[in-house]
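Usage

Read records sequentially. Each one opens with the input sequence:
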Amino acid sequence: MKIGEYFLKMRGTTRGSPPRVSNSEIVWSWIGAFLGIAAVAWVSNLFFDGLDVSLMIGSFGATAVLLYGAVRSPLAQPRNLIGGHIISAAIGVLCWKLFNQHFWFAESMAVATAIAAMHATRTLHPPGGATALIAVIGSPELHKLGFLYVLVPATVGPLILLVIALVVNNIPASRRYPEVWF
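and closes with the structure output:
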């Protein structure tokens, strides 16, 4: 490939912006995201309040976008949701344990390896990259969890979000979730 062709690829395409979704789709996305994040927060407060453990991590915000705003996306399906978070959390914890003396390396190794592992296992879920990164950049309390981080929050949180997605995304006739389980 010539250098000019390489840079021409960066122009993008002429397809334009994605089409606007219906007002109903916007409302159902909002309801799902609100209820999903509220459920995780409620369970966290109910069972983990006063402990050095939280069920809520930042990557769940991105997960909510996929589960409630892009319900038909392959990246939002249960296999990807659960597998992506679990695999990425385990890789993130392992990278922290092995490379925490070289913080920049632990961060980049966690995210890159999580992406490769999700690809290899057909569980690609973009918020998983954040779940791996959070395992490295998290607080001392989070680091004390060690591999418990894989269970709480990286398994329990997505399971709660999945239950809400199953309920909410199947209420309107225009939605169906999931497209596939495995």
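Summary fields computed downstream for this record:
- Residues 80 and 123 are 4 Å apart (CA to CA).
- Residues 23-168 form one domain.
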